From TrEMBL:
Methyltransferase small domain ranges (all copies): 47-113
Full protein name: Methyltransferase small domain-containing protein
Keywords attached to this entry: Membrane, Methyltransferase, S-adenosyl-L-methionine, Transferase, Transmembrane, Transmembrane helix
PANTHER family reported in the protein's UniProt record: METHYLTRANSFERASE DOMAIN-CONTAINING PROTEIN (PTHR13610:SF11)
UniProt superkingdom: Bacteria
Source lineage: Bacteria, Pseudomonadati, Pseudomonadota, Gammaproteobacteria, Oceanospirillales
Keyword Endoplasmic reticulum: no
GO biological process: methylation
GO MF terms held by the record: protein-lysine N-methyltransferase activity
Pfam families referenced in this protein's UniProt entry, alphabetically: MTS
Organism of this sequence: Endozoicomonas montiporae CL-33
Transmembrane intervals: 6-27
UniProt keyword Membrane present: yes
């Protein structure tokens, strides 16, 4: 085998391994890692609070695109992104390596604490958002904003919702823990105990 053939086989094998890793993690997590488009990022950026008191978290940071936008907007804040899928995690780690205020962790964020959060952003699938509901209600300090796009956070009242000017008219939502609705009986509109 020539050197060129060897390199071709090596690169092909690495491509198959990377693709296989993404497919396996997608099956495990229930969603493929999809970067947030620039148009949606700009829409989210318009909704960011002027100031944040506390740590900034990106839950399911994927390829790191939102981390870079957050770092640009909040250069003096600590920002942590969580991603479980190996290839997007490595990519996010690489593209944010020049930013000293960003940490990317290959970890399930459901196994971490967010009690120091000043802002949370996320782009998860509907099942992930449903699971996020009780987790954030338990973890977040009062008044901490949560900004998500594409999928709503069930059980929470949105403060604001705007549509991005992209092909899909992607929805961007802003929530705040203090605005979650729990009736005097302790039962939320979704029928869960509050």
């Amino acid at each position: 085998m020539t050197e060129t053939e060897w390199i071709t086989w090596l690169l092909t094998g690495l491509a198959f391994l990377a693709t296989g890793s993404i497919v396996l993690w997608s099956l495990k997590l229930g969603i493929t890692p999809t970067p947030t488009s620039r148009t949606v990022q700009k829409t989210m950026e318009r909704l960011l609070p002027k100031s944040v008191e506390g740590h900034i978290y990106e839950l399911g940071c994927g390829w790191g695109t939102l981390l870079l936008m957050l770092s640009k907007h909040y250069p003096n804040h600590r920002i942590t992104g969580y991603e479980q899928s190996t290839i997007p995690y490595l990519f996010a780690k690489a593209v944010t390596s020049h930013k000293t205020n960003i940490t990317v962790k290959k970890k399930d964020f459901f196994n971490t604490r967010l009690d120091d959060a000043g802002l949370v952003t996320c782009y998860l699938f509907p099942g992930g958002m449903k699971r996020l509901d009780p987790f954030l209600k338990q973890q977040l300090p009062g008044k901490c904003p949560v900004i998500s796009h594409t999928f709503a956070l069930p059980g929470w009242n949105k403060i604001e919702k705007i549509k991005a000017e992209d092909l899909y008219r992607t929805s961007v939502f802003v929530y705040r823990k203090e605005n979650e609705v729990v009736s005097p009986t302790g039962i939320s509109p979704t029928g869960k105990a509050g």
